[in-house]
Amino acid sequence: MNKFPRTTVGGLSVSRMIIGTNWFMGWSHTTAAKDAYIKENIRKRDVMADIIEVFLRAGVDTIMGQIQMPPMKEAIEEAEQRTGVKAIIVSTPGFTVNAQTPETGFDMGEVNRILEEQARLGCAICMPHQCTTDAMLDRCSRTLRKMDQISAAIRAHGMIPGLSTHMPETVAYVDDTGLDVETYIQIYNSMGFLMQVEVDWVQRIISQARKPVMTIKPLAAGQLRPLQGLTFVWNTIRPQDMVTIGVMSPKEAHEVIEMSLAILDRREIRVDLQETRSKASVKRAAPATV
What we know:
The protein has helices at residues 22-25, 32-41, 45-57, 72-83, 101-104, 108-120, 130-133, 147-156, 169-177, 199-208, 226-236, 250-265, and strands spanning 6-9, 12-15, 17-19, 62-65, 88-91, 123-126, 137-138, 143-144, 160-161, 163-164, 184-187, 213-216, 242-245.
């Protein structure tokens, strides 16, 4: 298997595929029962490490999530030890916002405590979660209020600043105001799942962004099949942009890596298909070998 293509964020080389962690931590966007299943069966150090190991061996060395939530850090470290590959951590911490924050700013004591922990845990890129970012977006002034405070603090703690968002305006407002960030997280999938405007609008926003974009939810939280979801995102983003994807097993990791490489290389996708009795009539015999 070829090593995965790379891009650059703020001078740091990262893999264009990013390991997502919702399927590790129990956020399925599906049902409470599905969340419970993930927490009971997947959110374990060894299980998570088995999956991360597959990605690291394929050159997908960038992982996004809340690194401070056990057993995330422990699972990453175990996979690193098995492979000898150091993971690049993209963290998405939240910061307290309230009715006064837009006027008085953030509690910088809290901000610095959180960022000190992120830096101690080895985070390379720090992107305030959308629960912070989107609360501070002001459509009237077309700004992200007080977010310059957090960007500056991220820099001061030796990390690369970015922003996580569910709002398509964020990218445009950041670019227009010159806010100090090196990348943005943007939801992007072919069915428009959790996207606030039409898919073609978000595609245009991504294509015009001044910095590389980390797209998330390419399979719409499992509502799109990998072939459909990945073919769409890889063919409609730029070479500098990234795709974040989560899985629940090592075999799924192998599949999405191979499928993505084939799509990027414009070659035949060679992964095993799932089989049911209804497909017996369309299945063809394997071609004879010469």
